[in-house]
Specification:
The chain is α+β, with helices and mostly antiparallel strands. It has 7 helices and 6 strands. The chain has a single domain, classed as Alpha-Beta Complex (endopeptidase fold (from Nostoc punctiforme)), CATH 3.90.1720. Helix 5 packs across helix 6. The longest helix has 13 residues.
């Protein structure tokens, strides 16, 4: 994990490998339902089932992001192969097949604002290809975990990845004991008001 080849594969090759030339599964009508429910301070976990990362990242989800605002300079903070990435919610939809919105019951309004500011303070962070807990460099779910400076999220740091050390995964965030699932794209059903694909 310390070699230049490993870094190059992790940052420049693997993020671009997808076993399909077609779009991801999420459609615009789901995006509008998502936007009605999501709030700043929400955690988003997601997966693209056709990406190579689905086979490399253990657990139900392969990526995590944090909502820092809506209709602002940037809406979502995430760690990607581009390091700390300022994204919009629509970017998550064009890059994933399933998205789940999580909200921590133990983050009140005042503390949520603090977590958001903590997250923004990592704006110069580089991506952590070693997956070591700490602020020197960050991976996606670690960005969320370390933004929660008082460690109110009740998560497990079990080594799901088999890397021989404590590790917080996107699935670990999803399984936190004090988060509620606010929205899951998989559970949405199309009604008469949404666009149905032509057969």
């Amino acid at each position: 994990m310390q070699t230049k080849f490993y870094w190059w594969m992790t940052m420049r090759v693997i993020p671009h490998i997808r076993f399909s030339m077609y779009y991801t599964d999420l459609r615009g009508w789901k995006y509008h339902r998502f936007r009605k429910l999501v709030k700043p301070g929400d955690i988003v976990v997601c997966i693209d089932y056709k990406k190579l990362t689905k086979f490399l990242v253990p657990g139900e989800f392969t990526h995590a992001a944090f909502v820092v605002g809506l209709d602002s300079e940037w809406e979502v903070s995430e760690m990607t192969h581009l390091d700390y990435t300022r994204s919009h919610t629509v970017d998550l939809f064009r890059e994933n097949d399933r998205i789940v919105v999580l909200r921590c019951r133990d983050w009140d309004e005042e503390y949520t604002a603090k977590v958001i500011e903590n997250c923004k303070s990592f704006k110069n962070a580089k991506y952590d290809t070693d997956f070591r807990l700490g602020i020197k460099a960050l991976y996606c779910s670690e960005l969320v975990y370390l933004s929660d400076s008082e460690k109110r999220l009740q998560v497990s740091l079990d080594d799901l990845g088999g890397i021989g050390r404590e590790y917080i995964s996107p699935t670990g965030l999803y399984k936190a004991k004090n988060v509620d699932v606010i929205w899951d794209s998989r559970d949405e059903a199309c009604t008469d008001t949404c666009t149905i694909e032509h057969k």
